[in-house]
Amino acid sequence: MVARTRFDADPCPVARSVNAIGDWWSLLIVRDAFDGSRRFGEFQRSLGIAKNILAARLRALEEAGVLRGAPAPEGGSHREYLLTDKGRALFPVIVALRQWGEGQCFGPGEDHSRLLDRRTSRPLRPVEVRAADGRLVGPEDTVVEKVHGTEAGGAR
Question: Is 75 a member of any domain?
């Protein structure tokens, strides 16, 4: 088996994020956790993923601090997987991927799921990237700044 390239020490926040999340299975596990899945069997049924792959991805997400395993409330040998604060911080990423997929990956009239505001039952507004002053910004409006040491600021 080919060893996976690691980006633990890469200076790029995108590379480190991909390193922490791992792969598409991990993103789908996080998606399902936001949708209420908590147990191994729930993830397995939803995703149709092989048990050994799911176990490895859950373990990696725990090690990355995205999920934490806990005993099920009713006891027994069952465990639940709960989003940590670090995992919950992925919500805008999941929403952005969902919205991008809705706009770019489906044909007109093709069935797909929608994310709705629980209070209003309406779709969310599109995720937007804004400058500190509130302006909408696109790729042409940004520049990457290399940050050294303890400086705060840009990204690669």
Answer: yes
- Domains identified in the chain, total number: 1
Buried b (16+ CB within 10 A) or exposed e, 127-136: eeeeeeeeee
Domain annotation covers residue 147: no
| SS3 category, 25 | helix
In a domain, 2, yes or no: no
Distance in angstroms (rounded) separating the CA atoms of residues 21 and 57: 9
SS3 at position 38: coil
State the CATH number of the domain containing residue 52.
1.10.10.10
Q: What is the pLDDT of residues 44-76, one digit of tens each?
A: 999 999 999 999 999 999 999 999 999 888 877
pTM recorded for the entire structure? 0.83
Q: Is 136 helix (H, G, I), strand (E, B) or coil?
A: strand
Q: Quick check: 10 and 16 in contact, CB under 8 A?
A: yes
Phi, psi of 129 (to 5 degrees): -105, 125
HEC profile of 67-129:
EEEEECCCCCCCEEEEECHHHHCCHHHHHHHHHHHHHHCCCCCCCCCCCECCCCCCECCCCCC
Domain of residue 50, residue span: 13-105+113-141
